[in-house]
Amino acid sequence: MKLTRRAMIRDGLLVVSAGMVMPAIFSRGVASARAQALDGSRIAQTASDRTLIIVQMAGGNDGLNTVIPFTDPLYTQMRPTLGIPGTKVLPLDTRLGLHPNLQPLTKLWDEGHLAIVEGVGYPNQSLSHFQAMDIWQTLDLNGNGGEGWLGKLVAGLVDQEGHPFKALDIGVQTAQALQSISAQVPTVASVKSYAIAPDPADTDRGNARLQALMKLYNSYPGTAPYAALLDTNALNAQDGSRQLRQADATYRPAVTYPKGPFGDGLKVLAEALVQGLGLRVGYVTLGGFDTHAGQQATHALLLQTLAGGLSAFYNDLAAHGKADNVVIMTWSEFGRRVEENGSLGTDHGTAAPMFVLGNPVNKGIFGEPPSLSSLDGNGNLKYTVDFRSVYATVLDRWMGASSKDVLGGSFSSQNFLPQP
Amino acid sequence: MSIDMFDQPTEPRMNFDQAQDDNPPTPLEATQAPIPPAPPQQPAPVSRRKFMGKSVAGLAALGGAGVAAALGGVALEKLIQHGGLTTPFQGPAASSMQTGHLLRRAGFGASPEEIALYKPLGFSGAVDRLLNYQQVADDDLENRLKALNINLNSSTDQQRWWLLRMAWTQRPLLEKMTLFWHGVLTSSFRKVGGPRAYMRMINQNQFLREHAFDTFDNILLGITSDPAMLFYLDLTKSTKKAPNENYARELMELFTLGLGHYTQQDVYEGASALTGWHIKGLTSRYYPQDHNDLVKTYLGHTGNLDYKDVINILANNPAAPWFISRKLFTFFVYENPSTDDLKPLVDTYVQSGHNMGAVMRTLLLSPQFSSAKAYRSRLKSPVEFTVGAYRALGINANGSGLPAITTLMGQTLFDPPNVAGWPGDKVSALWLNSGTWMTRLNYIDLLLVRGTSAHGSSTSLVDLQGTVNKYKLNSPEQFVDHFSSFLLDSNLDSNRRTQLLDYFTAQDGSRGGRPITLTSGKSYPLGRVRGTLYLLMASPEYQLN
After folding, report:
1. How is chain A split into domains, by residue range?
2. Per the CB < 8 Å rule, is B264 touching A185?
3. Strand B523-524 to strand B516-517: parallel, antiparallel, or no bridges (unpaired)?
4. Which of A231, A348, B170, B458 is the most exposed place for a label (fewest CB within 10 A)?
């Protein structure tokens, strides 16, 4: 009984075959993992090496000052003080350009590794941070869903080798997108803190004490409160801390990451990728985008942090020969009001652009920038692309998953990733 | 705007009309009225018998596996034996489980001495002592804090100051209630106007403490004009001509009503009505000339509304008592309360003129609070975990490591993740992940193995030999039972107790250190003795509250 529970936690395939999660999500994943198990085929291995990194821009990023419709006179009209002057914008084409602090991304654009999906939103967008975050993460348009879309994906991921890091969230709070009934995603604040300190009085480096502790967790009745949560996290921690420490001993980043938690977090994700810890889904958050007042300096700094971090991350992976296997996608719960407010800021809005980066990506602007002359009743943009079709694209075309099962419906793909 | 809105017994204590004086009164000067007794009759909509009967009936039907689930993992015999099912708060003395549960939920856990103080009071006597905190002196706490010379302009020292306050206070419910409010009516030092304005966070904290059991109206009036809040949600930037929506929205969505009870139009109109408040130095000031005097229609009320009207309308909105009662019940009792669970709290809110102390009395004396469903039904929050260990083990240190530790566990006081506060306050399972779990372990290790004392010396913070001598612990069994008594209400399954004893007595030679001598005269290596206590506090059971 205990063995089975352990084995199921450890081995995604068993989880799937035990019928604990929807097998349909990863029917193809199961097949490729079996193939891999049988003959270690190079193709199957490549397929399962694909990684998706999600970057959450929490608070509602001002999309209009991120990817800027700099030639639209309405933009300058409605943003008299906050508007970025056309002379400072980094043009992508004749209509749109990047905020000047996104300069590090222009190299990726020039090299063909950056896609922008414009006008992303959903019907009747919520202006509440928390309902909007719920919707983006759980896809329940009423905003009261539980399981996250990435949680469903991760629960269905097959990992024959029992890697503890098939998914990894950076921080101290596991993102709702990664919440799952049947999987607990390891959540790492820093490599240094992700370890169990031994008692120096013990001559076995804490082994006996840790074994006794794991026995207390393993024998905690499965029906007791929070049993699965406690047991799974203890197991994740025990396995993961050891592997991460070993990986850290030999990892040398090829670039200097920007200082701060965002850069540090991306470095941990890069380390997991470079050191082959089996990472399939990585998650990191950059917060502070709720710029109701005094937006200019705050937003500029945030975009600089974002672009500096993403560029360093990409360069580090490229230097280690891993850039072909990684797609990075950004999201934020909403964009901001078109017209600036009286506090040199912007209030809650709706549609906004998303970035998708990486070697596998088709360069370009996808979707349609929302019109500034046809706003909704609250003065907000009308979305042109459903966020679920962006998710469907990365699931179907990159992760080899069934988007229909993960998202609970069929959504057309976008062309920012090639057909598999 | 009908006149009856002003006839509520909730007129603000702060004299806002004097706000144009050179020395505007700050919310802190308000005095705290004593908490009125609970309404006399209080017929609980679900009788205790019926409530419990449901669990017990469920037991029979479900069989073994269901028993533990229905009862929150506590063996039935054990519950009955400890009075959990039959005598929740009757008799002269409360049971260990009742007292332990009460002091964990309405406080931060307790030392053996504290339990010995509360237990003879009986359950309702203990609730009285917790609620009537003004009658309990707390000079010792203030003196100890003063002696540490804490710099309240530093964001880490602010956390240390409050964590030690929670650890050392004799008024645990007051601090717990302040923590509750901090998670609801929240602000962050990261957005209060820069390092020179960090003190605004402490001022807000003092306001929430002084008004923790005041009327909801007064609490809302105070927080609306609170300098930290004015900055955090941009009301200070809101002007007559250009009202800022931020505070107006969150006041309804997150502080009083919840989604679905207002429209975007109410956000606009509310923002106009709320104009006039601005920060002035470390305090705030109402400028009538910057108040938007147009007629507004807000939540169905029309007139030249101002912030007082807004708060009046909100505190009297039928959704408000349900909203705040749900928050309280989830935080103090268990998650996903039913309408029946909340009804007595809502009734008390209305009958008491929105008095939060009266609502809390109803909550603490409710059968639900003392039910098996509530017992160990939430995971300890980082603050409950760290402060709990300090209180239970009587640690006298300067707390310098506490801010970093609680942050790594997922909770930085004065810095919630966003305006919705901590997700773990609502769903306690969200406190736990692999990283925060290890930090909990390492915190116990820090206390037992490598802590630094108040004087900076590197000796362990817990004097185990002293504890053995003080409580005359003469066997491994007595050692385990002693700590289990106040850390786990002696509610530890016998197999699991045996696992701890096995660790204590194992002869494998891997655990060393200067020996601890039990009163029997028998010595055990330090690693085994403190390792046993580490296991107890790292155990699944101890993670629960």
Report:
1. 50-196+227-407
2. no
3. antiparallel
4. B458
